[in-house]
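The methods section describes the discrete structure representation at length, but only in general terms. What matters is that the chain and its backbone geometry are given together, residue for residue. Nothing conveys this as quickly as seeing an actual entry. For illustration, here is how one protein appears when written out as sequence plus structure tokens:
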Amino acid sequence: MALLEVKNLDVRFAVRGGDLTALRGISFSLDKGERLGLVGESGAGKSVAAFSILNLIAKPGYIAGGQILFEGKDLAAMSERELRKIRGNRIAMIFQDPMMTLNPVLTIGTQMVEAILAHRKISKKEARAIALDRLQKVQIPSPEKRLDQYPHELSGGMRQRVIIAIALLLDPEVIIADEPTTALDVTIQAEIMDLLLNLCEQENVALMLITHDLGVVSQVTQRMLVMYSGRIIEQGPTRDIIDNAQHPYTVGLISALPQMGEPGARLFQIPGSMPSLKNVPTGCPFHPRCDYATDQCRQAMPDYVHAGNVDVACFEVSKRMEQEKHMQEERS
């Protein structure tokens, strides 16, 4: 049994004029110690999927259907009191902006100790010792000094290390990292991702990494999901998808990477933009931007087809698989 399993998850936002669907039929799993990447443009539904796992979606958003199973128990059906035992304790989350996560009027030590005492019945002295140990694990220099400092006294990279240390405080089984390096410069980004990867490997913690950076996903994750307009359109082993992407959208994302173009040439760009929740097209939501779109794509949502080790929701891929199968049958 998978450590975390999401089944047919639907998330909607109740607004005037009718509900808007942010996630439709999302299904995936995460095993203990596994590293999973969620990839897609802004508005694809990556963060909504992450927040849904811990039922952190603010109203008017709500989980409309499906299950979120953690060790077989449905998180979506749990009470707020039951969820408190899971959040931060067994499933931890790293948010995009550390300044929005850390309380500016409390010292780092106070915030870390409070987080521990909320879940463990130990003394403040013992909690402070755990906090100090976690700061040492994330390689923060002079950790004793940092415990008594305020967030504004630390650099952006240092604050993000503190956030990772807080995520590790209670030895979680799963860490959900939502764009953990967005606010940092490139060199610090690499350091933070290396640190996160090493910690997950050492502690055998499962990592769910949400990002739009395919370069990071290819280096850090073992499996990846590509999302578009609230739906998973391709999923499978990261290396298989990076080396041989099947869905036209995934192909476009990879083609847009700077290293894929000729030096000095214009970067490739997928035409158009992600549709808003109010204007999701009928059929395959990617069809207005797709070179292979047919009337079938405009009218119906494609089912998943198994292409090698990868699951893809695309009529073009399905058609190609049928042709290949037919040719093999003719040869035999």
User: Anything to note?
Assistant: The CA atoms of residues 43 and 276 lie 7 Å apart.
